[in-house]
Design goal:
The protein is mainly α. The protein is 75% helix and 1% strand. It has 14 helices and 2 strands, in the order ααααααβααααααβαα. The protein has a two-stranded antiparallel ribbon. α2 crosses α10 and α4 packs across α8. The longest helix is centred in the N-terminal third of the chain and has 39 residues. The radius of gyration is 20 Å and the shape is globular. The N and C termini lie far apart (45 Å).
Length: 368
C-alpha cells in the first residue's frame, strides 16, 4: 500500500507536471505555426491580433468570475489602472511585432528568440534597479555571462542563415500561390533579418511587460483579474488601431478555415488556459522548473514547421539555438543559485524568474 502511495505521489509530483509542460509548449508553438499557415492564406496580422484579444477576453471573463477572489479593486484614481494601461499598450505592440516577425521568418526563429526573455528581463531589471549585480558572486557572474551568450546566439541566428540541413515536403499543396510566394521570400536574407529584428523587439517588450507586471501584482495580487483587465484594455486599444491600419475592412469577416482556427486556437487556448496552467505549474514545481522547458519549444517548432509548412532547417538556426540554450540555462542557473541564497538569508526575491513564468501572461498574447 505504501508503494502505491509513493508511486501515486511520484506521478502527481513529477510525471503530471512534466507531461503538462511539454503539452503547453506544443500548444504554444502550435499557435505560431497555425498563424504562419493562416498568414500564407491571407490572414492579416491586424485582424489576428484584434480577434485574439476578443476571444481571450470572452474565455477569461467566466474564468475570473469562477476562480477570481472577492478582493476589492483599487480606487479608479490609483496608479494601478494607469499601469494596466501601460501593460496593455506594451503587450499590444509586442504582439504586433511578433506576428509581423513570424510573417517575415518562421516559427523556429520565433521559438529560438523567445529564449532571450530571461536575459532581457535581467538586463531591464538591472536598469530599473530591481536587480543588483555583485561581480564577486558566482550567481551574478553566471547571469551576466549567460546574458552575453544568449544575445550572441540570437545574433548568429538572425545574421547567419547558412546552408539547409533538413528539408521536408509540406502538407500544404505546392500549387498554392501563397506558399510559393513564401518559399521565394525565405530565400532572401533581408526578410530573415527583418523578421529576427522584429522578434527581438517583441521579446524585449515582453521583458518590459514582466517588469511592469511585477509592479501591478504588488498592488493587486489577483492574477486572473489582472490578466482579464489587461486583455480588456488591450482589446480597447487594438480595436481602433487595427481597424484603421487594416485597409481592407472586409478581412475582419473571417470564414471557416485556417485563419478562423488560428484565432480561436490562440485566443481560446494559449491566451487563457495557458496562463492558468503555467500558474499551476509555478505553484507545484516552482519557477526554475517551468523555465527549463522553454528551449524545448525550438525542437517542437523545427518539427512542426518542417511537417506543416515545409520549412527547411538551416545551419545558422542550429548553431544559434545551441548558443542561445547555453546562455539561457546559464542565466537560469545563476538566478536559481541567487534565489536559494536569498531564501536562506531571508531576503526578498527579485522578479526575474517569477515574472518569467507567469506564462507568459504576455507571451500568451504573442505569436510564439
Amino acid at each position: 500500500m505504501s508503494e502505491e502511495r509513493v508511486a501515486l505521489r511520484y506521478i502527481n509530483r513529477d510525471v503530471v507536471p512534466f507531461a503538462v509542460m511539454v503539452a503547453v509548449e506544443c500548444v504554444t508553438v502550435g499557435s505560431t505555426t497555425l498563424f504562419k499557415a493562416a498568414s500564407l492564406r491571407g490572414l492579416s496580422f491586424y485582424v489576428f491580433v484584434f480577434y485574439t484579444y476578443v476571444v481571450a477576453a470572452l474565455v477569461l471573463l467566466p474564468l475570473s468570475l469562477i476562480f477570481g477572489r472577492s478582493r476589492r479593486l483599487p480606487s479608479a484614481k490609483a496608479p494601478f489602472f494607469f499601469k494596466i494601461f501601460l501593460l496593455a499598450l506594451v503587450g499590444f505592440v509586442s504582439m504586433l511585432s511578433g506576428c509581423k516577425g513570424v510573417e517575415y521568418s518562421n516559427p523556429t526563429l520565433a521559438s529560438a528568440i523567445s529564449t532571450l526573455t530571461p536575459a532581457f528581463t535581467f538586463t531591464l531589471a538591472v536598469i530599473f534597479r530591481m536587480e543588483r549585480i555583485v561581480l564577486k558572486s558566482s550567481a551574478s557572474q553566471a547571469k551576466v555571462i549567460g546574458t552575453i551568450v544568449s544575445i550572441s546566439g540570437a545574433l548568429v541566428i538572425v545574421l547567419y542563415k547558412g546552408p539547409k540541413l533538413l528539408s521536408s515536403a509540406s502538407l500544404t499543396s505546392s500549387s498554392d500561390p501563397t506558399v510559393s510566394l513564401y518559399q521565394g521570400l525565405t530565400s532572401f536574407d533581408s526578410s530573415w533579418i527583418i523578421g529576427g529584428v522584429l522578434l527581438v523587439t517583441q521579446y524585449l517588450l515582453v521583458s518590459l511587460w514582466y517588469i511592469l507586471q511585477t509592479q501591478v501584482m504588488e498592488v493587486y495580487p489577483e492574477k486572473t483579474t489582472v490578466v482579464l483587465l489587461y486583455i480588456l484594455c488591450a482589446t480597447v486599444i487594438s480595436a481602433p488601431v487595427c481597424m484603421l491600419a487594416e485597409k481592407d475592412l472586409s478581412s475582419f469577416l473571417l470564414k471557416p478555415g485556417v485563419p478562423l482556427a488560428s484565432v480561436m486556437y490562440t485566443g481560446g487556448l494559449v491566451s487563457s488556459l495557458g496562463t492558468v496552467i503555467h500558474t499551476w505549474g509555478l505553484h507545484v514545481k516552482g519557477p526554475v522548473y517551468i523555465s527549463l522547458f522553454k528551449p524545448l519549444s525550438i525542437v517542437i517548432a523545427v518539427v512542426m514547421a518542417a511537417i506543416f509548412l515545409g520549412d527547411p532547417l538551416h545551419l545558422g538556426s542550429v548553431i544559434g539555438s545551441v548558443i542561445l540554450s547555453c546562455g539561457f540555462y546559464t542565466v537560469i542557473w545563476g538566478k536559481a543559485k541567487e534565489d536559494s541564497t536569498r531564501n536562506v538569508d531571508g531576503s526578498e526575491k527579485s522578479p526575474l524568474l517569477v515574472t518569467h513564468t507567469m506564462e507568459d501572461d504576455a507571451s500568451s498574447l504573442r505569436c510564439d
